[in-house]
Design brief:
The protein is an alpha+beta fold. It is built from eight helices and 19 strands. The protein has a six-stranded mixed β-sheet with strand order 10-11-12-9-1-13. It has a six-stranded antiparallel barrel with strand order 14-17-16-15-18-19. β4 and β5 form a beta hairpin. The longest helix has 16 residues. The protein is globular.
Length: about 375
């Protein structure tokens, strides 16, 4: 995995992410339906643009955090993995009866990620590809077949996703075309890069958050608008939770933070949640969700849930690592709360952009 990190941050990589299923919502009420199931304002998403969004249940818990593509005035795609969100969307509409169809369509993506990804895309679809903005969409052909390309990705690096239509028929044609276009740029086929997404502060559903997690707990409060008038699932609870936060009474016990921690380099996936304590030998107060080694920082980094009142920058903790990563087997390593993202992103997240403007919510 660490060998795969180098072409990602220096050249260009190709990922098979067909696990990202496309759930199509199409029909006269598509915009109204999508607006009801996401927290952000769907009416403000232009055609041929994408957004990172969350969907919550009535208790405010996060059900998923897909990329939402608006490919037409009456058609949206939820690009998601990890959950059966299609069943949730269909179930919601059993009672609400919006005039839409909701189905999984035969569209599967690959990700082209890394600083030279823009050159690969330009060679595939022409110079227009270089002008595609962050979260912009364009129609094109790759390998002779119809695709939609977005400037999105799971890395914080410059990157794109190529959504192939009729993917069960033409996957190899598209895949081989990207491989050929990438040869001059040292393209390598790699696995999805969790070490880079952790450095970028990008969350993974089921690992850093789940349906019991409020957005405010995991730095997604900006996804909860202060000015969205329309109703949406979870709105009442989320607005109540924000009011509690504004009053200084967080309605939850733990907050997701970034940690810089000791130990030997963590160079593979963590198969469990590693426990966090206030001091060596004390009872656990939190847990690590996503750890990895950062070559740039020459240190281990991690996301972790810790007590809200101990989440300030500079707070010290102790993390119980597996023996293979511990400095001394059986002894915890020192950790400190630090700012996320851990390193600058080529494409800053909406949270990063809003923070520079002094804002805490998407309108």
């Amino acid at each position: 995995m660490m060998a795969e990190y180098q072409p990602l941050v220096n050249d260009v990589t190709l990922w098979n992410v067909a696990v990202e299923r496309q759930i199509q919502v199409k029909g006269p009420d598509a915009e109204a339906f999508v607006d009801y199931v996401i927290t952000r304002d769907a009416t403000k998403i232009p055609v041929m643009r994408a957004r990172y969004v969350i969907l919550c249940n009535e208790a405010g818990g996060i059900l998923n955090d897909p990329i939402l593509l608006r490919v037409a005035i009456d058609e949206f795609w939820f690009s998601l993995s990890d959950t059966d969100l299609m069943l949730w969307l269909q179930g919601v509409n059993v009672g609400k009866k919006f005039d839409v169809t909701i189905q999984e369509i035969d569209v599967a993506p690959v990700q082209v990620q890394g600083p030279k990804s823009v050159d690969v895309i330009a060679d595939l679809v022409g110079e227009e590809g270089r002008e595609l903005p962050s979260y912009g969409l364009m129609e094109a052909q790759v390998g002779g077949h119809d695709v939609i390309i977005s400037q999105t990705g799971f890395t914080g690096e410059k990157g794109y996703e190529i959504y192939l239509k009729d993917a069960t028929k033409y996957a190899e044609d598209m895949w081989n075309a990207v491989l050929e276009a990438g040869q001059p740029y040292n393209l390598r086929v790699v696995a999805p890069s969790h070490h880079r997404r952790i450095a970028a502060g990008i969350l993974s559903w089921g690992q850093d958050m789940d349906f019991e997690t409020l957005p405010f707990q995991v730095n997604l409060g900006y996804q909860v608008p202060r000015k969205k008038e329309a109703d949406y699932i979870g709105k009442a609870r989320l607005e109540e939770a924000r009011a509690q936060l504004d009053a200084g009474n967080p309605p939850y016990r733990t907050q997701l933070v970034g940690l810089l921690l000791g130990g030997k380099p963590i160079t593979d996936y963590a198969p469990d949640f590693w426990l966090v304590s206030d001091s060596p030998g004390s009872d656990p107060v939190g847990y690590v969700t996503s750890p990895w080694y950062s070559p740039e920082l020459e240190a281990n980094i991690a996301m972790a849930h810790v007590p809200v009142d101990s989440s300030a920058l500079g707070t010290e903790f102790w993390v119980q690592l597996p023996d293979e990563y511990a400095d001394k087997p059986g002894e915890p390593v020192h950790a400190e709360v630090v700012e996320m993202p851990f390193r600058p992103s080529v494409n800053p997240s909406q949270r990063e952009r809003l923070k520079t403007r002094g804002l805490d919510a998407a309108v």
